[in-house]
Design a protein that fits this description.
single chain, alpha+beta, Glutamine Phosphoribosylpyrophosphate, subunit 1, domain 1, Rossmann fold, 2 domains, seven-stranded antiparallel beta sheet, six-stranded antiparallel beta sheet, 23 strands, globular
């Protein structure tokens, strides 16, 4: 699975920090969240300048481009397309001029009612330049501009349904917005007198900012020359942060809603090993997101931890590729078995998830070709059974090997000697103490929002 994108924003005060350059480093830290396109918009109190293109952050930007993005405020975006095509026109931030002046918007998440909202606005004469739901959000804000920006945002939040963590740029302010369920993460940091918004705390670290707090579900944070101001829209009784942030999406050095991602993954691996009586010589993890879980499994089981797969650090995540053919090429170029380490051994292979099954099958085959005597696959999350409608690259349940197949069927398909998943109950225990509830829809079908009607559900 791959999640939609990462967002970053910074409001600088004083001349020590160049906003666009800080956004560059923040986006570089969030590169794992999207590798199709990148963009930065900067404001100097009078105008907004922006640049966006297809490619990785260091491919899109150079010193000359960054120097041209002058201003003391900037927002940035890295994208993986789950809504709208892979085209430079769909790269973000999306910039538009309205009654309030120029606005730039970057969005992480996915709206379930974007098509209906777009169609209704087009019937009224609205013109769209992109196919992304971000432009729908920007249009809704612009349509209510006579109310003032804050009230326009409130009106937008009453209409849209889905997941969104937004950074919005005006000529003289930076605004962060998190959806009422808090499905996608967003946090606030501070460096000196400057303030930072980011999808993950690792991006704060990248620019030397200190973590202040997570933006709360349904919160609108405005940062301007007078400081940080916060208002809330009505939110459901329970928040529903995407649980897959801890399983796969987030960087291990991030802290999200009070939970250390690395420690949660170690705990998942530890719980996975409890009661598992498999006999093996070595535990290995699939780089990088499953390494912490593999260490936890090894600590609990007493089976030595080792390196069995080498990763090409210059190749992106395999799920980032938009079609299955490219995903399979990605596996072959990204990973290679360490023959000397695995030859003749019984291996416990820990992975964070099995989605379509083709990646797992290829890795098991790779280990057997390298001489592994047995390969026992252990998955540090439950079976993925359902489509996601809130920003993950699963359009239908039929894409999922877990939908309609038993554990035994999947074990045979991937060619493993045995297969075990972590239970949903145990996975939820790995994030105990989180300052949020959890969305578990891809595991158990309990969505926070009805994907058909857009109705917001409690509990």
């Amino acid at each position: 699975m791959e999640e939609a994108c990462g967002v970053f924003g910074i409001y600088t005060q004083g001349g020590d920090i160049q906003a666009a350059s800080a956004a560059y480093y923040g986006l570089f830290a969030l590169q794992h969240r999207g590798q199709e396109s990148a963009g930065i918009a900067a404001a100097d109190g009078k105008v907004i300048r922006q640049y966006r293109n297809l490619g990785l952050v260091p491919e899109v930007f150079d010193d000359e481009i960054l120097r041209g993005l002058t201003g003391h405020i900037a927002i940035g975006h890295v994208r993986y397309s789950t809504f709208g095509g892979k085209d430079v026109i769909n790269a973000q931030p999306v910039v538009a001029r309205c009654k309030m002046g120029m606005l730039a918007l970057a969005h992480n998440g996915n709206l379930v009612n974007a098509d209906a909202l777009r169609a209704a606005m087009e019937d009224q004469g609205a013109i769209f330049q992109t196919t992304v739901d971000t432009e729908v959000i920007l249009n809704l804000i612009a349509r209510e501009s006579s109310k003032g920006l804050l009230e326009a945002i409130r009106s937008m939040m009453q209409v849209v349904r889905g997941s969104y963590a937004l950074v919005l740029l005006t000529k003289d302010s930076l605004i962060g917005i998190r959806d009422p369920y808090g499905i996608r993460p967003l946090c606030l940091g501070r460096v000196g007198d400057s303030f930072v918004l980011a999808s993950e705390s690792c991006a704060l670290d990248a620019v030397g900012a200190e973590f202040v707090r997570d933006i709360r579900p349904g919160e609108i944070v405005t940062i301007d020359q007078s400081g940080v101001h916060s208002v809330h829209v009505p939110a459901p009784l329970g928040s529903r942060l995407c649980l897959f942030e801890f399983v796969y999406f987030a960087r291990p050095d991030s802290v999200i809603d009070g939970v250390n991602v690395y420690q949660s993954r170690v705990e998942a691996g530890r719980r996975l090993a409890i009661g598992d009586d498999v006999q093996a010589d070595m535990v290995i993890g699939v780089p990088d997101s499953a390494l912490a879980a593999a260490m936890g499994y090894a600590q609990q089981s007493g089976i030595p931890y080792g390196d069995g797969l080498a990763k090409n650090r210059y190749v992106g995540r395999t799920f980032i590729q938009p079609n299955q053919g490219m995903r399979e090429v990605g596996v072959r170029t990204k990973l290679n078995a360490m023959t000397r380490n695995v030859r003749g051994k019984r291996i416990v292979l820990v992975d964070d998830s099995i989605v379509r099954g083709t990646t797992s099958r290829r890795i098991v085959e790779m280990l057997r070709t390298a001489g592994a005597r047995e390969v026992h696959v252990r998955v540090s999350s439950p079976m993925v059974l359902n489509a996601c409608y809130f920003g993950i690259d699963i359009a239908t349940s039929q894409e999922l090997i877990g939908h309609g197949h038993s554990v035994e069927d999947i074990c045979r398909f991937i060619g493993a000697d045995s297969l075990k998943y972590l239970s949903l109950e145990d996975l939820c225990k790995t994030v105990e103490g989180a300052g949020c509830g959890l969305c578990t829809g891809c595991f158990d079908g309990r969505y926070p929002i009805d994907p058909e009607t857009g109705e917001m559900l409690e509990g």
